[in-house]
Structure formats: C-alpha cells, structure tokens
Design goal:
Layout: E1 2-6, H1 11-14, H2 17-26, E2 30-36, H3 43-54, E3 59-64, H4 71-78, E4 92-95, E5 100-102, E6 116-119, E7 134-137, H5 138-144, H6 152-160, H7 168-171, H8 175-183, E8 189-192, E9 205-207, E10 223-225, H9 233-246, H10 253-264
Parallel strand pairs: 1-2, 1-4, 2-3, 6-8, 9-10
Antiparallel strand pairs: 4-7, 5-10, 6-7
Helix pairs in contact: 3-10, 4-6, 4-8
Length: about 270
C-alpha cells in the first residue's frame, strides 16, 4: 500500500512532510509526495531529507512543472494521477493530505476489487468526493481517471493548463475533489459515510478547529487534521501531546529537534 500526498514549499504545509510520512510508515504504508519542481535546493528540503534518512522514512518525491500562481492547485490535483507512475497494477494507492495524521489503518483493499473506495463522501459539498480518502488499485485509478498512457505532468496540464483567472488558488480550491467526483460519475465505486449525522464533521477524527481537542483523546480515533501551522509553539505542543498519547512507546525527540531546526530556517 502507498499513500499519495502532496505539498508546495509553503511552510504551512511543508513542515508536516516528515511527520505525516512517519505515521503512514508506522501503518506499513509507503509514501509518494508530489511537489513543484525546485528552482534551487533549499535548506528546508535539506533538513527534511536529512530527517527522512535518519528515521529511515519510506517516501519518494515526484516533481511537477507549474506556473507559480497555479502551484497550489497543481499540487492538490497531482494526487489524482499517481497511477501514471511505473507501479504494479495491484499496488493500492490511498490519497491523503500532507497535514492529515492517519492513526489507524482503515483501508481494506481486497474487499472491493478494482473499484475505488471513497471514505467520507458525506463530508464534502455536493459535486465533490473527499481526497481524504480515496483508495484502490493502480489499475482502478488508471481506469477511473482516464489516464491511458499519459504522464502525470500531461494529465495535470490537460486539467489545468488552459485555465486562467484572478485568484487561481481561491477560485479552483477543491478542483481535485470536483475532478474526482466527475471522473467517477459513471464508474462503479464504493462510498463509505463518516459524518456524525449532524454536520460535515467526521467521526473519530481530531480536528484542528476544535478548541477542546485535548479533552477528546481516545484510542479509537482514526485520524487528526493537524493544527496549523505546526511549528507554532501552541500548535506544536498539541501535535506532540497527541502523538505521545497514540504512540506512548515512541521517542519523539527527533520531531522536537526537527521543529527547532525548521523554525531557525523560517
């Protein structure tokens, strides 16, 4: 199984990359991360790579080309096209967010064969499917996303290259989830609801907007939409508290050290 995430070089997202990878790896899941092609190698990327090596994190970076004002949208949508990579057809790909900490493996890839499974279809507006989480085999992704023989760069350019508008990120926020919904309209798929039945908050999820988040610690929690930005002291202490609760035998000194080093590069 391989998780597919993405990030730009915005500190509000990039900071999470080692931690999110670490958590997926703890579940036995490798990680693919899509990123804009670097103009120059940065100290932050050097630090992240250093942590990845020291912690033996299983993660591969893949880079896309994009106009600067479209980088966030290209990054979001890149997760739809991981099946363009040279991967076995029976490998299972799970789309996720770089700032979503997955604490339990709830993915049952053999249950639904070559159909994509959408977890939490009731958590997003009509006309969208959540990018956290859609999973299925590489074959299912290739069929559903009409990848054919295209590269992920070609797929992204076909989807976004000809679009222009003011505030591209704002106007096309959710383009990834809308595309996922549109591509799957005529395909068989499995929908798994996760709402609490009252609003679009997910059950068994810690949410960064919850002022009482630390009062709700539970071993049954599936995931955690992490407080942002993660390097701010108050947010970091919440993240660290939750990590220590769910992984009491884990030494998170590496995360503390990473955070201190990252802050010096801001």
């Amino acid at each position: 199984m391989t998780a597919v995430i993405s990030t730009t070089y915005d500190d509000k997202y990039l900071w999470y990359l080692p931690l999110t990878t670490f958590l997926w790896n703890k579940l036995g899941v490798d990680v693919i991360c899509f990123m804009p092609r670097m103009v120059e190698f940065s100290d932050k990327i050097a630090l992240i790579n250093k942590v990845q090596i020291e912690q033996k994190l299983r993660q591969k970076h893949y880079f896309f080309n994009s106009p600067t004002h479209k980088e966030a949208t290209y990054s979001q949508c890149s997760r739809l096209y991981a099946a363009c990579l040279d991967l076995p057809e029976d490998e299972v790909l799970i789309s996720g967010d770089v700032d979503m900490a997955v604490l339990k493996n709830i993915f049952t890839p053999n249950k639904h064969g070559d159909y994509l499974t959408i977890i939490g279809d009731d958590l997003v507006p009509n006309g969208q499917y959540p990018i956290c989480y859609c999973y299925g085999t590489v074959k299912a992704w290739r069929d559903s996303m009409s990848i054919h023989n295209n590269t992920y760069q070609q797929c992204l350019d076909n989807l976004l290259g000809d679009i222009e508008c003011e505030s591209f990120r704002g106007n096309y926020w959710g383009k990834d989830q809308e595309t996922l919904f549109n591509e799957l309209q005529n395909d068989p798929k499995w929908l798994v609801q996760r709402s609490n039945g009252q609003n679009q908050w997910a059950t068994k999820r810690y949410d960064r907007d919850d002022a009482y988040i630390l009062d709700r610690l539970s071993p049954d929690t599936i995931d955690y939409h992490m407080n942002r930005p993660g390097f701010e002291e108050g947010n970091f202490q919440i993240i660290l508290t939750i990590m220590k609760y769910h992984f009491p035998n884990e030494n998170f000194q590496w995360l503390i050290d990473f955070n201190e080093q990252y802050k010096k590069l801001l």
